[in-house]
Structure formats: structure tokens, C-alpha cells
């Protein structure tokens, strides 16, 4: 097997008795766009800082391209970082910021300038060379930070929530742009984020962090469709979790199951519900499908989709099990939504979409 | 001038305002060029006390027990005369002059370098010595001197005197010096460890030295220097400056420098030497063959005194044998009243300070304010005045 | 102010206080001037006024014998200062001391402030700031005299340097040493404040881009804290330029401008000449501040 770009073995890090990273083993392949996803305080940023060398681990080993760099200083590691606050040097103009790393590596003046300008062009910032960071917008600063890191041609680029401070529109643009750049330069990106959407959109693989440990590593589809734990199911996207009596009543099985809201088809009994909400929406039932009935508690219009919160009849009256189902608004309009409340509905999904979770 | 304590510097701002405001009020001063102090009548007869008296003095001259409970000659005075004493300590002669000009004070203990300025400035009045019974006991060699009288008119009551001695470390300077040459012509032998008094008046020490060693300059009085004489003294001091470790104006600083050996030889007062010796430092003092400069302090009454009777009562009290003994011993100087020698707690005090030694006293050139009118009586030349001395002193220190 | 009161007076019958308050609400500039007029007046009279009097009196002279101030404008004082070589020497020496003290303080304060702001654990920071401030609570005189003892012949400094007379003794070196000690907190605190505002990520970024600690300090920390250093230098420079007490205690025979000013007030009773001398440091500081203004350090004060 090829040597991984990054290999972490038994990595632990405590800050004054608090264990921020509680044993992480991970391999990241060369050229991979790898995301570390988790809520704040889950240890993902600390792992990034351990890879960069800003922190030294309490125990464990960090290898870069097969070499043990655990005890090496940041400037001895062939990685570069894009910081959450960009960390641009405020007293230097844009070109000096980008050239900084090259200057330290004693790259000749002409080559330095050429590479810096090329890097700025790659992030679409030609003509901004002589501005100060303070004169740039958030998105522009972000791109300078990217250029400053990429110009050094590191083997690995570490990105610490680089899009966190941008507004949604800019953020979506940057997500695509980052992905493109990664494909162009072909180096390993390790991307820290707490935004599951972002991670799913951009990554080749995702590691989901929780309480200093990795809960699951996999491709976006694996993590999304086959969550390895209730935490992953809940943190990556939304999931309905059925357990115990409800699971038994609905699925006829013991255990704990997760179902994604968009996998659930929803339809009313013929003639009883509002328009566009009849048995036709349920489609043909396959032999192995699971069907349940319930009543709409809440319907929320969200543009492309409508979210239905349904109380299941199964297990009633002592159970208050609810399911969330997401429906494409093929015909539904925001005006109709209110009238769905309290209507009886039928829910249907394919049996394999109810994923058994470890207890 | 002596005891120029650092603290006073902190009050400079206040002083600044004071002198700026006060200068207009006493404009009736004499023109010094005509050589006559303004005509002010002395007190004709003593009346009843006014209930209080305001005094400007050197530290240690007016003690009411707050510094040391055993050192108190104010309480008894207040009891006996009914005059409440309000005292203000001045750090330098010039501060004294400034304070007296404010018109708030009745009485001042002035050194010779302040007294004439106040006499000619019309700040102080002549003193009727007949109204001070103890005056008759005062040593004759302190009466009617150039710093406390003008044209045979007495302007004050002598308090005490002392000499600026040559102090030296017995372990570093041998043989024991008998001449000021150890700090002038031979100073290089103790380069960087010579000390000198930090005041323009110290130019007189150099002049006195030249008086003995360069008779061709014709110096008759170290406070009366014409251009040539003055320049010679200044040159001598500039040469001395190369070997000076530090100048002192705060006597505690001089004590410490002698004890540590930073100072090996230089000008000091008897009290400095005593304090250093008390700490077992190998220090001795000598009155060199050339003589010495010194001070002689005089109690003077303000021309516009609001409480003249109490002021006269104080002057008589402070030179009474017991009080004069206490004050002289507390400060460390020779008392003006020889009868005081019987009352000092250290019976050797008067001997140590050479109080009765007329020969010793005659070698002392007491501090006097230099004026353009030569103090030695010459009329064919003008002498350098104190302002010129001050400017020169800055140049000497470089 | 007069505008304000007439308006209030006209409002008369229905609650003048209320009318005044409403009027003030509509006129923020009047509100501001009402608020600031007292302090500005104080500043103007007490500060600028005294400076003006100082400058004015520099043109007077003193009757050398009686000590009376002669209020006839003349340039004599300034002529003396310009023509007499000793004043030039002393001025240059004073500037030299002020520069040296500033450099020594900057050299010590930079690593210390860096440690306080970036290396020490946050809970230690406050303690360290207090520790830096503690010497300021002790009397200036006590500290200066303590140094006099330390620098004495055979004193602790000599002993540390291996024998009597090995230390600097009293003199120019001792003056610079003691002034540096006295004013160090005034340099550390602005630099500390400046460094505290410097994000840690800048240091990480520099290391990340290949810079060792020294390079990071030179290329990132130093340029960013320069305004803070300049702000601190305003303190150390002006305080050193005006000092005369420490010099008197440990300076040996050294004299600085402050000593001349003091001697002319105290010993010579020549206030006008002192005033003329005092304009030298004022002028130097004005030049310095104008130069400093360009660096943006005044915003750090």
C-alpha cells in the first residue's frame, strides 16, 4: 500500500488535565480532500494543530509521508495552514504576505515574485498585490491566506474552518473554488469544519469527531447513508431515530434505527387531504417497504422542500414518537402548508433505509 | 546652601509659583551698586510678646521633639514667653531668601551667603543687640563680621559655626594630608575618588588654595575675585573635575561615599566625619595649612516682622547656654555662646568642634555672598558676583 | 455656554430644566462643550498656562544681588545657552542618556512583555503585571538610594562583577542603569498591551511558513509592536530627559539639563534662566513627538 500523507497513531493531547484529544488513529491518503467534522470542542482543531506542530501531543505519533515528525517544530514540517482568522500579517501588503514563506526559504527575488503572483492569480486576486489586509473584504483575505499557504507548495494543506467567517453565498462560492484549487494542485487538503453540509459537499472522506475521538471515517455517502453511531446520524444531516417499543411496533425488529427524513415518502388517504397530498405521492409500494401511519403535528415550508413533523400512531397513546419527513415541493405552495396540520398521513420507506445503529 | 536636600527639588514647582508671585511685592530693595542697604530702623525697645513667631530655619535649629523626643527646646520657650513657634525648614540659602521675601516670616537663621543679600534687599532689619542679653556672651570673633553687619550696624545674632574640612580615608591616603593639594594639584593620585561640595560657593575653596600657592594672583579674600583671579580659580576646579568622583550637597550622601570608599578625600563637615567614624569607617578630618571655608549662621529679623518682640525673645533663647548647647550638638557645630560648652551632653563637644580655638576660627573663611563690589575693599576693579559664580560652576562641572 | 443659558432663560414658564434638557438633546455639540468646558479650562489654565508663563519668564532676568526678577524682555538667557559650550555639552549628554535609557529599556522590555503576553499562562499574566507595577509603588528616592548602596565601592554590584572597583561606580553608566531601572515599567506596559492585541495565530502562521522564533520576532512581532515601543519610549525618553534626582544620587559628577534647571532655581535663584533652560527639553520633546506622530504610536497611548 502507498505511504499515507498523514498517519496519526494513538494521538492524545491534554490541556491541564482536560483531554482534548483522547486517542486518535487516522490515515489520510496522498491527494485526498479530507474533512474533520465535529461540534466545537470535539478535538478536531487540536488534531489539526498537532499535525501542523503548533502543539505537541501528550502521547502518540504524527507521521508525514512516512516520517515521524511528532517532535518537530512547525517550521520543520512540510505542511502549511490556512487559519480561521486568516492570520495575515497586518503590516505587510498582500504580495509580501504571500512571499513570506518563500523569503524565509531563501527563494530568489524574481522566482519569488513570479510564484507569488501566480498564486494570487490562482485565487483570482491579480491587482491586489499592494493592498494591506485591512483594506480587503473577508473573502479576499481568505483567498490571500490560501495563496500564502499554497505558494510554498506544501505536501499537505491544513485548513482550520477557513470559511467560518464568510456569509452563506460567499461561502458556497468558496467551497467550490477550494475544491477546484485542490484538484488543480493535487495536494492533500485537511479541512476542519463544524458544518456538515460543507464537509459533505467538498470531501473525499470525512472523519466525524466527538469528545476527542473519531466516531466514524468514510466517504460522504458512507457517513451520511450508513452512520456508524447515533451521534454521527444526528450530527451529519438530520436523522429520525427509532428505538425500543417504537422500533418494534413500526419495523418489527428490536434495536436502534436511523432514517433520513428525505427517504420517507408521505401521502394522505385518498380524498381526505388537501390537494397534491394523496396516495399518488406515496408511489408503488415494493414488497419489502415499511409503512406507518400518523398525524401531522407541524408543517414548515422551506422553499425547495417542506418539513413535516408526524406523530406516529404506533405505540400510542403512551408513546410520543415523532418522525420528520422531508418532501420536495413538487406541487405544494407555502399557502397550503398550514392546512396540512392535523391531517392523518401514511409514511413509507424502503427497509434498507432504516439503518441499524450500535446501541 | 548646605543640607541641600533632594526633597526640596520636589517642591520646585511650588517654589516656582512663589517666586514668580512674590517678586513684585518687595520692590523697595536697594540698588546694590550704591553699596548701601536701605535704611530700616532697628527695634528700639522690647515689648510684650505677640503670642506667636514665624521662623525660617535650617533643619535641626528649631526642634520641638517631633524628630526626637529628647531634642526639644521649643516647648519650654513657648511656656516661658507665650510665643507659639511656627517653623518652616528651608533646604538651601536661596530657599531661605525666597521664603523671607514672601513677608510671611519674622525670623531666619541665615548663612553668610544669604545674609548680605537679605540685608541689601531690605528683607531684614538691623538688630538691637542691647535687647538680646545673651549676646554679650557670644564669642567676639563672631561679632560684627562682614556677613552679619554692614558699616558697624549689626544685622543679627550669631548662632554657631563650622568649617568645611578636608576629610580623608586614613587607609587610602598616606601620609596624612596637611594641605588641600591632595584635592587640587595632587588629586590625580586618587583619581575618580575625590569629592567636592556641589555649590558655586565652592569656588572660594579653590581661591583660598590659590591664595596660599599662587601669591602672584594677589587674592586677599576668596569671596572677592576679579576676572583674572576668578579665572584662575575656575581653571583649577576644571582641572580638579577630571579627578572628582562625585560632588555632594546632601550630607548623608557624603557620609555614605566616605564609608564605602567611593570618596577617598575631599571637603566635608565635622558632622559628616563624626557619622562616618561612628560606623567604624577609617576616616579622619583635618584643617589644612591653607585654612578652610566655613559657615557662620546668624539669626536675623524680618524688616516687616509682624511679631518682632517674640522674634527677639527667640534670639535670646536660642543663644542661651543650654539651648545653644542643645542645638549645636544636635546639628554638629561650634556654639556661638562659650557658656554652652558646659551644657553639652558630650563634654568634649566644644573641643571636637574647636569652639574656643580662635586660631582655628581665624583660618576659616566664612561663606559670604560675592558681589561686584569687591569684599576685600578694592575699588579699582569689579569682582565677580554670585550670578557669575553660578554660571561658572555649571561650566566647571561640564 | 452663553448661548445655552439665554435659550434656557427664554423658555421661562413651563419647566426650564426640562426645556434645557430637551434643547441639549437636540444639540449634541452644545452638550459636548458643556461637558468638556471644565476639564478643558483646567487643562488650558493649569497646563498650557504654566507652560506659557514658563516660556515668558525665560525672557526675563534676575538682579544678581537681591534676586529680584527683572521683567524686561531680553534674549540674554538664550544667548548664554547658545554661546556657552557647556550647555551644548550638557544638552547632548542629556539626549544621549535619554536615548540610551530608551534603548536599554526597549531591549529588556520586549522579551519580558512578550513572555507576559504570549508565553505565560493567562492566570499568571495578571500577577506578572502586578509584579511589574510593584516597583512603582515604592518611593523614587528609596529606589535611587538603594541603587546608590548597590553601586557603592565594594557594594553588591562590584561583588557580582568580581571585586572592588569592577562595577561602574557612580557616573554616567550608573545614571543610565538606574534610570533604565526606574522607567522600565513605563516601557513594558505599553508593549505588553500591544502584544496582547497581537493574535497568537500570527505567530503560528509565521512558524507555519517556516520561520524560526528569531525570524518571527524580527519580521512579525517587532514591526507590529513598534508603535507600542515608540509609545513606551515617549515615557522613558521624556522622563529621562527631565530627571535630575537620580543623577544627583548615582551620577557622580555628571550633570544633565534637569540638574542645571534645578541648580538655577535652587542654588542660584535664577528662575528666568531656569525657564530658558527648561525650554530645551520641551523643544526636544516637541520634535520627538512630531517624529513619533508619523509612526502611529500616539494611538497606543
TrEMBL record, chain A:
What the entry lists under InterPro entries is as follows: AAA+_ATPase, ABC_SmlMolc_Importer, ABC_transporter-like_ATP-bd, ABC_transporter-like_CS, P-loop_NTPase, Transp-assoc_OB_typ2
Membrane-spanning regions, if any? none
Record keyword RNA-binding present: no
Pfam families (alphabetical) = ABC_tran (PF00005), TOBE_2 (PF08402)
Which PROSITE patterns does the record associate with it?
Answer: ABC_TRANSPORTER_1, ABC_TRANSPORTER_2
Top-level division of the source organism's lineage: Bacteria
* Organism of origin: Planosporangium mesophilum
Q: Which GO terms describe its cellular component?
A: ATP-binding cassette (ABC) transporter complex
Keywords in alphabetical order, please: ATP-binding, Nucleotide-binding, Transport
What does the record give under GO molecular function?
ATP binding; ATP hydrolysis activity; transmembrane transporter activity
The name this protein carries in UniProt is ABC transporter ATP-binding protein
Keyword check for Thylakoid: no
Domain ABC transporter spans what residues? 6-236
Automatic annotation (TrEMBL), chain B:
Q: Where in the cell is it found?
A: Periplasm
Entries under InterPro entries matching the protein: SBP (IPR006059), Sperm_putr-bd (IPR001188)
Q: Which GO terms describe its molecular function?
A: polyamine binding
How far does the signal peptide extend, from start to end residue?
1-22
Tell me the SUPFAM superfamilies matching this sequence. Periplasmic binding protein-like II (SSF53850)
The UniProt entry, under PROSITE patterns, shows:
PROKAR_LIPOPROTEIN
GO process annotations (BP)? polyamine transport
The UniProt keywords, alphabetically, are: Periplasm, Signal, Transport
Provide the Gene Ontology terms for cellular component.
periplasmic space
Superkingdom of the source? Bacteria
Cited PANTHER family: BIFUNCTIONAL POLYHYDROXYBUTYRATE SYNTHASE _ ABC TRANSPORTER PERIPLASMIC BINDING PROTEIN-RELATED, SPERMIDINE/PUTRESCINE-BINDING PERIPLASMIC PROTEIN
Protein name, entry field: Spermidine/putrescine ABC transporter substrate-binding protein
This chain's source organism reads: Planosporangium mesophilum
What are the top taxonomic ranks of the organism? Bacteria, Bacillati, Actinomycetota, Actinomycetes, Micromonosporales
TrEMBL record, chain C:
CDD domains xrefs: TM_PBP2 (cd06261)
Give the record's membrane topology. Multi-pass membrane protein
Q: Which UniProt keywords apply?
A: Cell membrane, Membrane, Transmembrane, Transmembrane helix, Transport
Q: Which PROSITE patterns match?
A: ABC_TM1
Report any one BP term from Gene Ontology: transmembrane transport
**Matching InterPro entries, A to Z?**
MetI-like, MetI-like_sf
**Would the keyword Membrane turn up in this protein's UniProt record?**
yes
Where are the membrane-spanning stretches? 34-60, 95-115, 127-150, 170-195, 216-237, 271-291
User: What domain of life does the native source organism fall in?
Assistant: Bacteria
Q: Which family does it belong to?
A: Belongs to the binding-protein-dependent transport system permease family. CysTW subfamily.
Name under which the protein is recorded: Spermidine/putrescine ABC transporter permease
Amino acid at each position: 500500500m502507498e505511504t499515507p500523507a498523514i498517519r496519526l497513531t494513538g494521538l492524545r493531547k491534554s490541556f491541564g488535565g482536560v483531554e482534548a484529544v483522547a486517542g486518535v488513529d487516522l490515515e489520510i491518503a496522498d491527494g485526498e480532500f479530507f474533512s474533520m467534522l465535529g461540534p466545537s470542542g470535539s478535538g478536531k482543531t487540536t488534531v489539526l494543530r498537532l499535525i501542523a506542530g503548533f502543539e505537541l501531543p501528550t502521547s502518540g505519533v504524527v507521521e508525514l509521508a512516512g516520517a515521524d515528525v511528532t517532535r518537530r517544530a512547525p517550521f520543520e514540517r512540510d505542511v502549511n495552514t490556512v487559519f480561521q482568522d486568516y492570520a495575515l500579517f497586518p503590516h505587510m501588503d498582500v504580495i509580501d504576505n504571500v512571499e513570506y514563506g518563500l523569503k524565509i526559504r531563501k527563494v530568489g527575488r524574481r522566482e519569488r515574485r513570479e510564484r507569488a503572483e501566480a498564486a494570487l492569480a490562482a485565487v483570482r486576486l491579480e491587482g491586489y498585490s499592494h493592498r494591506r489586509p485591512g483594506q480587503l473584504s473577508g473573502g479576499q483575505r481568505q483567498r490571500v491566506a490560501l495563496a500564502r499557504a499554497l505558494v510554498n507548495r506544501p505536501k499537505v494543506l491544513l485548513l482550520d474552518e477557513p470559511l467560518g467567517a464568510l456569509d452563506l453565498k460567499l461561502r458556497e462560492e468558496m467551497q467550490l473554488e477550494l475544491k477546484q484549487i485542490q484538484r488543480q494542485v493535487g495536494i492533500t487538503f485537511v479541512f476542519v469544519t463544524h458544518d456538515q453540509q460543507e464537509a459533505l459537499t467538498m470531501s473525499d472522506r470525512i472523519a466525524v469527531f466527538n469528545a476527542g475521538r473519531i466516531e466514524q471515517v468514510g466517504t460522504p455517502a458512507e457517513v451520511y447513508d450508513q452512520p456508524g453511531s447515533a451521534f454521527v446520524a444526528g450530527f451529519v444531516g438530520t436523522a429520525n431515530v427509532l428505538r425500543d417499543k417504537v422500533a418494534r411496533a413500526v419495523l418489527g425488529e428490536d434495536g436502534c434505527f436511523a432514517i433520513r427524513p428525505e427517504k420517507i415518502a408521505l401521502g394522505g388517504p385518498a380524498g381526505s387531504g388537501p390537494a397534491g397530498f394523496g396516495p399518488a405521492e406515496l408511489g408503488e409500494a415494493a414488497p419489502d417497504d415499511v409503512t406507518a401511519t400518523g398525524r401531522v403535528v407541524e408543517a414548515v415550508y422551506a422553499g425547495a422542500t417542506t418539513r413535516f413533523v408526524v406523530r406516529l400512531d404506533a405505540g400510542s397513546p403512551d408513546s410520543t414518537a415523532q418522525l420528520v419527513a422531508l418532501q420536495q415541493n413538487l406541487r405544494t405552495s407555502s399557502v397550503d402548508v398550514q392546512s396540512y396540520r392535523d391531517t392523518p398521513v401514511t409514511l413509507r420507506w424502503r427497509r434498507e433505509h432504516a439503518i441499524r445503529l450500535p446501541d | 546652601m548646605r543640607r541641600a536636600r533632594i526633597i526640596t527639588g520636589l517642591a520646585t514647582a511650588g517654589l516656582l509659583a512663589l517666586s514668580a508671585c512674590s517678586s513684585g511685592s518687595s520692590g523697595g530693595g536697594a540698588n546694590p551698586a550704591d553699596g548701601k542697604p536701605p535704611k530700616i530702623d532697628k527695634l528700639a525697645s522690647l515689648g510684650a510678646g505677640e503670642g506667636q513667631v514665624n521662623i525660617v530655619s535650617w533643619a535641626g535649629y528649631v526642634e520641638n521633639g517631633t524628630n526626637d523626643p529628647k531634642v526639644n527646646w521649643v516647648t519650654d520657650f513657648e511656656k516661658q514667653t507665650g510665643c507659639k513657634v511656627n517653623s518652616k525648614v528651608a533646604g538651601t540659602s536661596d530657599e531661605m531668601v525666597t521664603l523671607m521675601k514672601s513677608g510671611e516670616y519674622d525670623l531666619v537663621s541665615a548663612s553668610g551667603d544669604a545674609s548680605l543679600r537679605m540685608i541689601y534687599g531690605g528683607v531684614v532689619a538691623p538688630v538691637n543687640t542691647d535687647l538680646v542679653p545673651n549676646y554679650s556672651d557670644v564669642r567676639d570673633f563672631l561679632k560684627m563680621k562682614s556677613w552679619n553687619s554692614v558699616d558697624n550696624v549689626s544685622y543679627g545674632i550669631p548662632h554657631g559655626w563650622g568649617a568645611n574640612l578636608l576629610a580623608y580615608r586614613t587607609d587610602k591616603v598616606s601620609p596624612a594630608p596637611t594641605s588641600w593639594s591632595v584635592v587640587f594639584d595632587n588629586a590625580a593620585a586618587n583619581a575618580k575618588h575625590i569629592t567636592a561640595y556641589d555649590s558655586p560657593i565652592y569656588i572660594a575653596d579653590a581661591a583660598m588654595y590659590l591664595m596660599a600657592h599662587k601669591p602672584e594672583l594677589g587674592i586677599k579674600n576668596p569671596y572677592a575675585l576679579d576676572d583674572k583671579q576668578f579665572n584662575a580659580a575656575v581653571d583649577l576646579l576644571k582641572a580638579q573635575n577630571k579627578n572628582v568622583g562625585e560632588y555632594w550637597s546632601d550630607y548623608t550622601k557624603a557620609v555614605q561615599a566616605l564609608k564605602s570608599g567611593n570618596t577617598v578625600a575631599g571637603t566635608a563637615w565635622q558632622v559628616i566625619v563624626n557619622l562616618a567614624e561612628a560606623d567604624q569607617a577609617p576616616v579622619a578630618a583635618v584643617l589644612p595649612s591653607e585654612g578652610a571655608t566655613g559657615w557662620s549662621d546668624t539669626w536675623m529679623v524680618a524688616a516687616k516682622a509682624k511679631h518682632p518682640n517674640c522674634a527677639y525673645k527667640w534670639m535670646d533663647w536660642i543663644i542661651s547656654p543650654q539651648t545653644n548647647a542643645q542645638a549645636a550638638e544636635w546639628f554638629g557645630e561650634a556654639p556661638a555662646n562659650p557658656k554652652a560648652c558646659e551644657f553639652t551632653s558630650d563634654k568634649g563637644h566644644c573641643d571636637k568642634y574647636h569652639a574656643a580655638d580662635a586660631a582655628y576660627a581665624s583660618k576659616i573663611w566664612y561663606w559670604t555672598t560675592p558681589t561686584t563690589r569687591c569684599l576685600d575693599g578694592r575699588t579699582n576693579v569689579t569682582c565677580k558676583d554670585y550670578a557669575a559664580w553660578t554660571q561658572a560652576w555649571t561650566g566647571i562641572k561640564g | 455656554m452663553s448661548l445655552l443659558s439665554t435659550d434656557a432663560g427664554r423658555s421661562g414658564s413651563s419647566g426650564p430644566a426640562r426645556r434645557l434638557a430637551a434643547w441639549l438633546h437636540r444639540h449634541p455639540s452644545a452638550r459636548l462643550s458643556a461637558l468638556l468646558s471644565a476639564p478643558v479650562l483646567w487643562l488650558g489654565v493649569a497646563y498650557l498656562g504654566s507652560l506659557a508663563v514658563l516660556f515668558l519668564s525665560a525672557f526675563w532676568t534676575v538682579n544678581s544681588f537681591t534676586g529680584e526678577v527683572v521683567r524686561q524682555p531680553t534674549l540674554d538667557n538664550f544667548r548664554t545657552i547658545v554661546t556657552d559650550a557647556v550647555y551644548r555639552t550638557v544638552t547632548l549628554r542629556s539626549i544621549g542618556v535619554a536615548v540610551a535609557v530608551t534603548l536599554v529599556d526597549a531591549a529588556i522590555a520586549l522579551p519580558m512583555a512578550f513572555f507576559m503576553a504570549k508565553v505565560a499562562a493567562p492566570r499568571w499574566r495578571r500577577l506578572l503585571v502586578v509584579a511589574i507595577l510593584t516597583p512603582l509603588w515604592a518611593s523614587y528616592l528609596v529606589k535611587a538610594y538603594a541603587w546608590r548602596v548597590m553601586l557603592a565601592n565594594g557594594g553588591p554590584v562590584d561583588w557580582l562583577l568580581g571585586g572592588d572597583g569592577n562595577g561602574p561606580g557612580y557616573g554616567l553608566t550608573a545614571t543610565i542603569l538606574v534610570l533604565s531601572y526606574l522607567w522600565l515599567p513605563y516601557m513594558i506596559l505599553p508593549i505588553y498591551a500591544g502584544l496582547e492585541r497581537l493574535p497568537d495565530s500570527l505567530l503560528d502562521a509565521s512558524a507555519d511558513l517556516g520561520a524560526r522564533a528569531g525570524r518571527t520576532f524580527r519580521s512579525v512581532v517587532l514591526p507590529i509592536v513598534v508603535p507600542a515601543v515608540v509609545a513606551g519610549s515617549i515615557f522613558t525618553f521624556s522622563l529621562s530627559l527631565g530627571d535630575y534626582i537620580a543623577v544627583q544620587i548615582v551620577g557622580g559628577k555628571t550633570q544633565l539639563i534637569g540638574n542645571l534647571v534645578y541648580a538655577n532655581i535652587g542654588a542660584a535663584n535664577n528662575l528666568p534662566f531656569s525657564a530658558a533652560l527648561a525650554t530645551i527639553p520641551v523643544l526636544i520633546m516637541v520634535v520627538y513627538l512630531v517624529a513619533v506622530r508619523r509612526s502611529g504610536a500616539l494611538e497606543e497611548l
